[in-house]
């Protein structure tokens, strides 16, 4: 009887031990499965799904594109591949005098000169009439009124508020033709109080103003027909000064192309270098494939432009310089670069760590049970052997 009881107890204990071992195995497997799902799978998936997509960029080449060329800010217009030329005809006394001239006629006569400049930029010519608009800061001097050279910058500011130059995304070159009152002829005087022969002045990066006084006969007949050739000649001279041209010969046009190409290349190099620094310092900026392609095209073409210019091929150098400038500006101003600018890495951790940490702590603490379980299994095998 005792032997039977002892044998039964041993079987019962053996069964219980086997059940305990199976249950322990299930627990360990459960811990390992949680660890595998959360750590081996979960963290990489979280990292991949929350990462910022960044296309491959030629960063090293972009860093090398450091421009050593200084920008001449003293005189000149804004760098662009397109410009608006706004012809403004300002008539303060439309009731007292009729003006027989059209902005379209000035446009037609400007086209031959603008065609010479077409390799460096595209031009859109617009015209407008401004009535009952005066030029301020006039002082009477005997039989006429005077604008002194030091007052000229103050004339532009009130006039510019009535121009349409701010309605275009392109830089605007203003060409203003002002017709004074018949009773108030207006002349520009220099620092020596002498009349300026051209009666016109130029403002760098803005444009020019030409003051054209009606003659006595026109005032008596109340009809003034300006000399179109003289008006166009004055505006052409002002545009030449804005583009830093000495003339319109082939040598002058070639010199303009070289200067423009070098300026474009220098600007492109600065833009790409700044973009490389920006994208390297802020890792949360998205770099789409489209932006990456634009940058690659810009880098490739700016290098080609420099090679062509060094070899003396000005036309191809200018062509590739314009392409590189266009794509570099497009990449730099692409809206997608701001997609995750305000969601940096530290904020990403601050959002997700409170979610992962309560789940991960029990899992990591349970790894001690795995270690004990592995040690006991190893010891059991040694005993059985």
UniProtKB/TrEMBL annotation:
Q: Which family does the UniProt entry place this protein in?
A: Belongs to the PIGS family.
Where does the record say this protein resides? Endoplasmic reticulum membrane
**Pfam families from the entry?**
PIG-S (PF10510)
UniProt keyword list: Endoplasmic reticulum, Glycoprotein, GPI-anchor biosynthesis, Membrane, Transmembrane, Transmembrane helix
State the protein's name: GPI transamidase component PIG-S
Please give the superkingdom of this protein's source: Eukaryota
Transmembrane segments annotated in the record for this chain: 28-48, 349-370
Keyword Endoplasmic reticulum set for record: yes
| Membrane topology listed for this record | Multi-pass membrane protein
InterPro entries to which the protein is assigned, alphabetical: PtdIno-glycan_biosynth_class_S
Pathway(s) where this gene product acts: Glycolipid biosynthesis; glycosylphosphatidylinositol-anchor biosynthesis
Q: What is the species of this protein?
A: Molorchus minor
